[in-house]
Specification:
17-stranded mixed sheet; 11% helix; mainly beta; 373 residues
Length: 373
């Protein structure tokens, strides 16, 4: 059995991916390791303390010391129909590639094995207007993602996901949205990660308008400038840092959140976090309502609560989008602090204490408790 296992691993390293039948055979002999909290986290606590789960582990290393040299090759080796937790452990380095976790491969964890979030980087530079190599058109915004996770139970830990598309060098391109991470799944955990880009950095989506997509992000950083946290997921960003970034021409202007929430869903909850960045004072909005495709039935929702806001935030922090008024949707604050915070007004709705009691993390996650397993 040992000889067969070593042969299988050598073949996987040579080819970089395996066919479905070979993947099934390989999965039976994958090494099994106990899964603990990711290293390099902003705190010493796991998302949910308790006994560690046991999961199969695939290793990725650029220098050939792992089972695979690319992240996508490791994902390809996971059998279709997988539901057991599989950890793709990625050694420190910069991996210039796109990665897609299809809906058929649930419970996949991408985990950097370095000492901090910045040691393992997955990066690419597609934009919405980038032409596909096969000549079939452009990628579009969602297709531009460096990492796209479409399977329930996806987790990312202790790594950086980046889109380094150069807007200044592509001013001839009209569609310059460039996604770093796209999730279109339920029960997603993003723990101790950096997600960085410019416009449309983090797309928190769902598989369909009618499908629930819950996301819990903690101990993390999100960097961008225009609508850089957007989508229709029910997402909590907790104990994290949102960093505002100047635009390609050095100007300071932008929007943090662009929720596209269905009327019967929760949108974005930014909680116990910090908004900062080297940008001009009063130059950024907290958000605006994205009625994707002009869908008037949507009811975009975003709440910033117990969060420190820098002076970059405008005194009237919400604005309209594409003919839709933010006042017709669901935007609010609660007990924010810092120079960018403000008191209640018609342009700055604040939750009451009783209203805030209905907008806690547990309300967003709706019976799901995020864990490492």
């Amino acid at each position: 059995m040992a000889a067969n296992r070593h042969a299988a691993l050598r073949r996987a390293r040579r080819t970089g991916l395996v066919a479905a039948a070979a993947a099934t055979a390989l999965a039976a002999v994958l090494p099994v390791q106990a899964y603990g909290a990711a290293t390099g986290a902003a705190s010493d606590e796991a998302v949910v303390p308790g006994a560690a789960a046991v999961a199969a582990t695939l290793t990725v290393a650029k220098d050939g010391t792992g089972q695979y040299t690319t992240v996508q090759a490791a994902v390809n080796a996971i059998p279709a129909g997988n539901t057991a937790r599989v950890i793709v452990s990625i050694k420190p380095g910069t991996y210039r590639e796109t990665v897609k976790i299809p809906a058929t491969k649930q419970n996949v964890t991408l985990q950097g094995s370095g000492s901090g979030r910045g040691d393992t980087v997955i990066v690419y530079n597609n934009a919405s207007g980038t032409q596909k190599p096969d000549g079939s058109g452009t990628y579009g915004t969602s297709g531009s993602a460096t990492v796209a996770a479409e399977a329930d139970g996806f987790q990312a830990r202790n790594l950086t996901v980046s889109n380094d598309f150069d807007e200044a060098a592509h001013q001839d391109m009209s569609a310059r949205q460039a996604v770093a991470l796209r999730t279109a799944a339920d029960k997603v955990v993003l723990d101790s990660v950096i997600v960085t880009g410019d416009q449309d950095t983090l797309l928190l989506d769902t598989a369909s308008k009618a499908t629930l997509g819950r996301v819990y992000m903690t101990n993390s950083y999100v960097v961008g400038n225009v609508d850089f946290i957007f989508g229709r997921a029910s997402a909590v960003i907790d104990k994290s840092v949102i960093t505002l970034k100047k635009r390609w021409d050095g100007s300071s202007a932008g929007y943090i959140a662009a929720p596209s929430t269905a009327a019967d869903r929760k949108g974005f909850l930014i909680n116990n976090s910090t908004v900062n960045g080297d940008v001009s004072a009063a130059s950024f909005y907290l958000g605006r309502p994205w009625h994707a495709g002009g869908d008037a039935s949507l009811d975009p929702m975003a709440t910033f609560r117990n969060t420190t806001l820098s002076a970059a935030i405008k005194s009237a922090p919400w604005t309209d989008m594409s003919g839709f008024s933010w006042k017709d949707d669901r935007f609010a604050e609660y007990k924010n602090t810092g120079p960018g915070a403000g008191s209640a007004s018609s342009n700055r709705p604040q939750l009451s204490d009783s209203g805030a009691a209905e907008q806690e993390t547990a309300d967003w996650l709706a019976g799901w408790t995020p864990s490492a397993s």
